[in-house]
Specification:
Layout lengths: L1 H10 L5 H14 L7 H8 L3 E13 L2 E8 L11 E2 L2 E3 L7 H13 L3 E2 L3 E10 L2 E13 L6 E4 L10 H11 L12
């Protein structure tokens, strides 16, 4: 990929042959070093399409179906302190989607567990950070994560909500009937 990308940039006169060579060598070093620093990831995310493993999590509660949302860090470059649904960018070092799911579970949902994620839709989406190919899944949450809250799906969602997560949740809601068996419905 680095060689093709470098050749394209050279043809368009955006990089010198030497810069293309440096870029290719650096990409070779990066290949097996994930996770990268946030600064490096942000720079690369502007140049390539990132695959995002999104898992919109629901739970049936006394007030009805609720979606789980957590806040991004206050120092987040693009979405500081905004509400979001759990997800993770796939890494070249992930051997399976299960690797990405484990990372997502540990970082965003622990100590709760979820049902096996159900694939809902694939979508190419342009976001503030770059372009993502979203693998959208839904899951049923068992227990309560340490961070975040559940919000009724039939009421307005909290603000500020990451702009592209509003559409993500709307897509996920179309698959909600598939979770009825987990809610005992």
């Amino acid at each position: 990929m680095a060689r093709a990308m470098g050749t394209q940039l050279l043809r368009e006169g955006q990089l010198t042959r030497r810069e293309v060579g440096t870029f290719i060598r650096l990409c070779g070093k990066l290949e097996h070093t994930q996770p990268w620093t946030l600064e490096l990831f942000e720079a690369l995310a502007r140049c390539v399409v990132c695959a995002a493993y999104e898992v919109v999590c629901f739970q049936y509660r006394p007030e009805g179906w609720c979606v789980f949302l957590a806040r991004r860090a206050t120092n987040d470059i693009y979405w500081p302190n905004e509400w979001h649904s759990p997800g993770t960018i796939l890494r070249a070092t992930d051997k399976t989607l299960t690797d990405a799911l484990k990372r997502l579970m540990e970082r965003e949902l622990a100590p709760a567990t979820i049902s096996k994620p159900i694939f809902t839709q694939l979508e190419l989406n342009r976001i503030r950070r770059g372009t993502e190919l979203r693998l959208i899944h839904i899951a049923y949450v068992i227990g309560m994560p340490n961070h975040g809250q559940f919000f009724p799906v039939d009421k307005p969602l909290p603000e500020p909500l990451m702009d592209h997560h509003r559409s993500l949740i709307e897509i996920a809601l179309t698959g909600l009937p598939r979770l009825n068996r987990f809610a005992g419905r």
